[in-house]
Fold this sequence. Notes:
This protein has 17 helices and 20 strands. The protein is α/β, with parallel strands linked by helices. The strands form five sheets. It has a seven-stranded mixed sheet with strand order 14-15-16-13-12-17-18, sandwiched between helices. A six-stranded mixed sheet has the order 9-8-7-10-11-19, sandwiched between helices. The structure holds NADPH dihydro-nicotinamide-adenine-dinucleotide phosphate (NDP).
Amino acid sequence: MKTTVQTLQGSRIGHFIDGAFVAPRAGVYAPSYDPTTAEPWYEFAQGDAGDVDAAVRSAKAALLDPAWRRMTQTDRGKLVRRLGELVLAHAEDLAQLECRDNGKLIKEMRAQMRAIPDSYGYFAGMADKLQGDTIPVNKLDTLNFNLREPIGVVGMIIPWNSPLMMLTGTLAPCLAIGNTVVVKPSEHATASALALAELVIEAGIPAGVVNVVTGDGATTGDALTRHPGIAKYVFTGSTDTGRKIAGNAAGNLVPCQMELGGKSPHVVFSDVDIERAVNGVVSGIFAAAGQTCVAGSRCFVEAPVYERFVEALVERTRRVKVGHPLAEDTDIGPLALAAQLEKVEHFVGSGVREGARVAVGGRKPQDEALARGWYYEPTVLAEARNEMSFMRHEIFGPVVGVMPFSSEDEMIALANDTEYGLASGIWTRDIDRAMRFARNVEAGTVWINTYRSAAFMSANGGTKKSGYGRRGGFEVMREFSRLKNVVIDYSGAMQDPFVIRLR
Length: 503
Ligand code: NDP
């Protein structure tokens, strides 16, 4: 793998098409910024419709090539497993690349790189377990069965917050099934997808099966989502962009899998150990500087313990260390881009104007060493109300609003009073209450006495404006394969073509 922080620094990198790096046709490059200094550190290719077309053609050719098409499922599974092993072998370089690109903590990126190979292994194992069915039809001497086959070239648009982790969740099953792909990473974190494309070739996966075309969403992403050669889109990102992509895809009658934003409710009842719940809420919102789709950004606390909970939350939040993402003792690093920082500042400001109280945070850190980067202090806004604009919009930053509730019915109404429905969490010792919450909350995931406990073995995704389609578990194998119905008449009889045969 040649793409590392050292080789990229101060250099230029092209698209990865048909097994090799290629320069953009128009010769245009764009800078990638280091979020800790706000300075550019390498340049990536700015793809246009011609580059996208070359990538889709390459993926289409690979799809039809017997080297991939006629490979047995077991052999394909071995290659997918090998790719995971190579990620593990290059885990440190990949972690450093992502950390430098998106400012996330090195310790989190290292943990992700150690988890990703297991995910490849899991889906590699499924490659030869994807079965069709035999259908007992109402006809004699007839065999009717379903085949499961690849759907074709899959277009994948991934966000900057955990690029390889997000990519793996759909790339691994897509490859295990026999699809080919064109990936468009975010312009804010491009490098790791390109490095992975190199490993794909090293793993022995044929050239053209995985292509990466880089550039911004409005140009490169838009061209990809209008291309008639794509069979399905996977999109992870904001709800507004999801809407645009679904619109483009509809023009070609192509389905999508949408993993969109969230404004997830995190509920605390008075029967719990407050310290444990505080830790859960802190990890639910401040991990990754709040830049996670499942962030528990609306915290509802049962009225009798509200004051005590806010006090404990503030005390714990003061101990969250903001610092350089490469430092081992850092708890939260910078936001990934300047626009994110502006968005956080905007929503904290609007929250205060609408009557919320900054209980802790609410500003950039005062430390001189962090002054140039896009850092923001972890922030608790108390006396929040669900109708305040920061409680309605996804901020994607380290800001939680906390408000009291008096009854279970009121809490469920508040939790569901949002256009989103991605994740949810509840802290209570009452199992009946927890199960009522699980039944009634409108969210794709429910965490009980835990939060952010995700697993690639279980299907997850959103409801309402948080998207549709599922990743994880066997469910994702169905999402990226297609059923074909085959009917065989083995009666040997010569049928009169104009007699309708009922049996
Ligand atoms: P965006 O929607 O802006 O971007 C996501 C991806 O879409 C990027 O690759 C981006 O490219 C691309 N894109 C942007 N505009 C277009 C377009 N018109 N056509 C095609 N592609 C486009 O999201 P953010 O970058 O702001 O990412 C954060 C969002 O992602 C949050 O809302 C978060 O909730 C969501 N998210 C959801 C997850 C989930 O699993 N549900 C997981 C992680 C994040 P570029 O960046 O180059 O412009």
